[in-house]
Amino acid sequence: MKLSNLKYITAFLILLGCRQEPKRNAPSQDGLNLKPQTTKLVVSKPPNLEPPVDMVWIKGGTFYQGALPEDSLAMQHEKPRHKVTVNGFYMDMHEVTNDQFAEFVAATNYVTVAERAISWDEMKKQLPPETPKPHDSILQPGSLVFKKSKSSLPNLYDYSQWWEWKIGANWRHPNGPGSSIEGKGKYPVVQIAYEDALAYCEWKGGRLPTEAEWEYAARAEKINDIYSWPGGLEQLSSHANTWEGEFPVENKLQDGYERRAPVKSYPANAFGLYDMAGNVWEWTSDWYHVNYYANVSEIEELKNPSGPEKAYNPSNPYVQEKVIKGGSFLCSASYCASYRISARMATGLDSGAEHLGFRTVLSVDKIENK
Ligand SMILES: [Ca+2]
Ligand SMILES: [Ca+2]
């Protein structure tokens, strides 16, 4: 298979990371889950309930989800801000680590999506109809690995310039064959597809956060802030693992890490959560719908929203996408700046990558029902 064809597959099948602004269609109610919720808000942790290990209580409350009007870097799909209330819940204080995921795999013999044989019949459903079948030598288990550029890239909209499909890349070998997680037990697990994250949640007894829960937790009552740490952009290097310098050419490493950092390497936010900005992107359970914010903004207050009922992204019509949050070690001021609280991206369900992980949450009723 020619390299250009491989790039084509990569670009269309596994669309992720910092990407261009999605096209925005006229607002539509189609696929939006706008059912009103009337149950009482859960604010405080029930008494006598011990926090699960490595989790913190996020008290319930009301906030404004979405970009601040003065955030010049905000994309259209982060707007407008809208009023949202969420119940209190427990949340992992850090991204799920290699050690934690290894414990799950040892207990269940779970095989991740990136480790499984590729089905062309399934793959072609997510590609434009005219896409030719790649040679079998390419259709092998693997995933996406970041590739630094030797020179400046004039067009940063073509993300296949810094993503490489690597056969053999998976959570045990995050950067492909030859790479290893040995000695990196406290690093966030990556190369995790959506169903891999769900399988871990089911084993653990939790679930993925909704997008609203994730953003509420990241914001930690900083109602009018663009960033989740104090001091704004000047303090970025001491509070988050991101890309410093010209992306994807030069990384100044002011935060100390070229790629992933061990969890809890930077200060927690006011709720006690680590790496809610940067390190690795995190899956949420919401479908990505390009018009979602525009539509729900007409509602006075959303209560425990779980996102639209189905995905919709005209820029990527063949792939079912979920929302990911928080940005990663690849987010730079010179590009997408997705370490902002309101930043959001869409990622296909079966797309693992070396900058994408997750954390779990737990509703109180789930604990009480155990
Ligand atoms: Ca870094
Ligand atoms: Ca993160």
From TrEMBL:
Residues 54-361 form the Sulfatase-modifying factor enzyme-like domain. PROSITE patterns: PROKAR_LIPOPROTEIN (PS51257). One of its GO terms (molecular function) is formylglycine-generating oxidase activity. Pfam families: FGE-sulfatase (PF03781). PANTHER family: FORMYLGLYCINE-GENERATING ENZYME, SULFATASE MODIFYING FACTOR 1, 2. This is Sulfatase. It comes from Croceivirga radicis. The lineage of its organism: Bacteria, Pseudomonadati, Bacteroidota, Flavobacteriia, Flavobacteriales.
